[in-house]
Amino acid sequence: MDHAADAHRTDLMTITRFVLNEQSKYPESRGDFTILLNHIVLGCKFVCSSVNKAGLAKLIGLAGEINIQGEEQKKLDVLSNEVFIKALVSSGRTCILVSEEDEDAIIVEPSKCGRYCVVFDPLDGSSNIDCGVSIGTIFGIYMVKDDHEPTLADVLQPGKQMVAAGYCMYGSSCTLVLSTGKGVNGFTLDPSLGEFILTHPDIRIPKKGKIYSVNEGNAKNWDGPTAKYVENCKFPKDGSPSKSLRYIGSMVADVHRTLLYGGTFMYPADKKSPSGKLRVLYEVFPMSFLMENAGGQAFTGKQRALDLVPTKIHDRSPIFLGSYDDIEEIKALYAAEGKKE
Q: pLDDT tens digits for 102-129?
């Protein structure tokens, strides 16, 4: 028996311990954020458990309803949405919730109202459930100032106003990646303990990557700069090796790989979707927030992604995010295109 290994195993940095350590750096903190995060973590554990037994519990397949995006809802989508709404409301720390699955924002009743607004996609990549591809939950958190009652304007803010963002990926392992505005940390669920353990401290995206990630099935509808960048990835003119294409079609999985290995993840605007496909509040903003805090960049084709100001809770936007130097190359291509016009 390896007693040394067992002794080391008892000194684990759980996500709760990690957040409490961070909280202790702010004497004025009341612990509200820690409580809210614990409820998000509980929701992630519940959904992870449901995803793992989805086939056995007959949770895969269509639920027979269409969500407000016009997409058929899976049974797990419906369940995940309910789980997170209940977890967030019961925390007593939220005032407004925005979910991909609900047409309108949820205003929390005054008796359970707190000072945080949470925007979330309860089950991103759900079209991949039936074939076992990694899927996940994405979330972003805003804080309402004490000087006014919460309104929808509190969530229709630029992404740079978020106080925290993260995602939980349900795949070969269950991984939760979180940023509270100072670096990015990754935690992996230890099923034997039922705890998220710090496994990826201070994630930094490589300055330049060897991978690009985009749905090339849309290539005929792309604008000039996107087409040019992908051509440069395949046929570099500076003699460097070609980049590898990796595209899973589940944003959480594609962004997670980009964060760890570097490169670019792209979902550009095109003739078919001139405003882009991904939703600003609960997909573009949280992932851009994480990417910037890990040393990367996020760009819409026109501006820094986190400077966008949404006008509706389900607004969409093009997005290019990833390694700093790679996004600089995309920005230069868009700048050159702008000069031609």
A: 999 999 999 999 999 999 999 998 878 7
Long-range contacts of 198-204 (CB under 8 A, 24+ apart): 198/12, 198/13, 198/14, 198/15, 198/18, 199/175, 200/175, 200/260, 203/177, 203/259, 203/260, 203/294, 204/294, 204/295
Q: How far is CA 28 from the centre of its chain?
A: 29
CA distance 251 to 315: 17
Query: Which pTM does this prediction carry?
Result: 0.92
And the tokens for 74? 């899976």
Q: Give me the amino acid identity at 131.
A: C
Contact assessment for residue 185 and residue 152, using Cβ atoms and an 8 Å cutoff = no
Which residues on adjacent β-strands are paired with residue 204?
none
CA angle 100, 290, 268 (to 5 degrees): 60
Tens-digit pLDDT profile for residues 197-242 = 999 999 999 999 999 999 999 999 999 999 999 999 999 988 889 9
List the domains of the chain with CATH numbers.
1-198 (3.30.540.10), 209-336 (3.40.190.80)
